[in-house]
Amino acid sequence: MFSRLRSDIQCILERDPAARTAWEVLTCYPGLHALVLHRRAHWCWTHGLKWLGRFISHLSRTLTGIEIHPGAQISPCVFIDHGMGVVIGETAEIGPGCTIYHGVTLGGTSLYKGAKRHPTLGSNVIVGAGAKVLGGFTVGDGAKIGSNAVVTKPVPAGATAVGNPARIIAAEADARREEAASKMGFSAYGVTQNDDPLSQAMRGLIDNAGAQEHQIALLWQAIEKLSAMPQHSNCVPDGAARQEHFKADKLNALIGK
What is the pLDDT of residues 95-112, one digit of tens each? Predict the structure, then answer.
């Protein structure tokens, strides 16, 4: 029991830069308290003491603001950071090394008793604040769930899910996007990890379109100067764009740049 507690404290010290001492973690971290109480509740649940397990879970929810059903299976070295508003359902399974932030729901979409209704998180999964993972599917090892994402389908290992409904972004696709984006002169999702990749792509396209219009306007201005010479007097067609009209700043503002 004490070795498990020591490993839980150590994983918090490693992952939370705000944690200063083991004593501070032991006395002031509700995520740790919720996990300790959950182990007692889970033992009662698996040994036929269903009501006692639920009562311990209820006390834990009152004390910590974290609701974990006593039937949930949680591996060692799981870190629930802040934790307020976290809800973990009965058939949820959480692998070792996972990090779960406040406001996360590991919920179900089925009303059938006995069925696998809640998600399974592999090892080292990160679930961002406010994310909702709903259903009896698996989130693969090393996957990341973005803040406020609503995930209703499996997430492959090493992938990232963002948005509502969540879009699955494979790690290989991230690398390709980063390579292509670097040629366009903007930061892709792999660099600015807290941003939406579609917004980043849109910003790159907007900037690229604005740069192209700028070059076209310069070309027409050069041609207009040439047209002033007698031998080139008819080289500029009517309606040629000599000024830039593309409002890149306004479009970037619309997508939150």
Answer: 999 999 999 999 988 777
